[in-house]
Amino acid sequence: MRAFSGIKPSGELHLGSYFGAIRQWVEFQKNGEMICCIVDYHAITVPQKPDELRARTRMLIATYLAAGIDPIKNMIFIQSHVQGHTELGWIFNCLIRMSELERMTQYKDKAIVKGENVSVGFFDYPALMAADILLYDTDIVPVGHDQVQHVELACDVANRFNKTYGETFKIPKAVIQKVGARVMSLDNPTEKMSKEHKNTVMLMDEADVIRKKVSRAMTDSLGTITYSKDRPGISNLIEIFHHATGREIPEIVASYAGKGYKEFKADLAEALITMLAPIQTKTKDYLDHPAKLDEILRDGAHRASVMAKAKLALIKDKVGFLA
To answer: What are the residue numbers of the active site?
Structure first.
């Protein structure tokens, strides 16, 4: 089984990124192959400062490795280092309908609801995302709920291409983690965790910062540790506790019977600090050895390019391009 997943180097990684994506990849690699792509083309659909983009890209690679992604068993590379992504993205531009892109939630939220004058790239990036996924004969795509729509579009364009030009693409499947796939904000538990939220715990936050952010997490006025859809604040924290420690949710709830939020939050903060400490240490070590990172990226880009070039040659031939 082969899985593809990518993260934009457009900001610091936080708990939602780790629980909802990276840790799923680490688990998957035990029985399958991960294609881990830093999707820097997607990052520039909104303005980026070049030096910051380069620094965040390196940080992301270092975090992948520190979290346990094996660069020998899997492919770790930067999207812009493999030419086939944009080539296939253009071919898909000629198959995907405007109406399909107009239905994409991210576009509607930004362009329609907020009234922003978005770039063509922002409107069109689902076509490039479909190319990212389909270029490598991907079997599964580990995603959060907000990205399922994009995987569905990739399936639609794959089926359309297969019907038009003959069997060419595998039809991938979106895989969502049952608990914690969508980690919610500590500021507002009805919204997905985001780097824009003030109290979001970043993977490289220092211990005192984590304690402060968790202590400010929104709960409610009931004061009891109960897991329920009717209590999104405390339930979100319980899910985060579950992912930080591996303890089951009923066990966590039972262990805090008769206890209050202050003790629970203090323990949650320490659990996060303990979980993140080795990742932070390894990330800093990788960043201190840039030559090692470059070697890993060159190897990953080479392996991905070989695979992508072969697939693209088949695609171009079926479309009718002269070799």
So the answer is: 110, 192, 195
